[in-house]
What does this fold into?
Amino acid sequence: MDWSITKQAGHKRVGNENYDLRHLRDTTFSFTIPATKRYSELNAEMLVQYSSHCISFGPAHGERFDFSVVGRDRLVVDDRGNERCFCPDRFAWSKHLPDIIRSLPTDRICYFTGHENWLSIEILDPHGPPKIYEVFFNLTRQSGKFLRVYVESAYVRTGENTNRRPCHFRRESKIRGKVLLAKKLRNQPITRPRHR
It folds into this structure.
């Protein structure tokens, strides 16, 4: 089923399990970025939208899923019309997303990815084996008082997908969330810091 329909319905049934997706519906919230010596306080709103990649994974390169084998109920069609497979693990991890995104207007660290998006990292299950949860998002200025955050993907890397692990990001290639948001709202350029 198309992601927009599934998301609006607020749930997905897979087998005998009904997965509650209401936390991934489009939401808008207000936030404040405190004043600094140079800039006054910023009060703005943020529209948050989540892609189907937060609860599903794609096939290996050049392959397709056989949903007659994995189950038609696991089919998720993303916003580009691509067929993806529902993942219970990604669904479970996605429950952390609203809090992660709401913490962007703080000192939360965001990494430059070298593309048109940003990466934030959360360590899950601190009392068990740590899981590094990578959250990739795009940030668009709608006005001086309104931003759109589109969470493109969020996952924990597995053994078969270890390229460009977050520990390989340079220490300098980061920016605090509140600085990133403030620069976007003020329509200021956001430049990657020079490597030392």
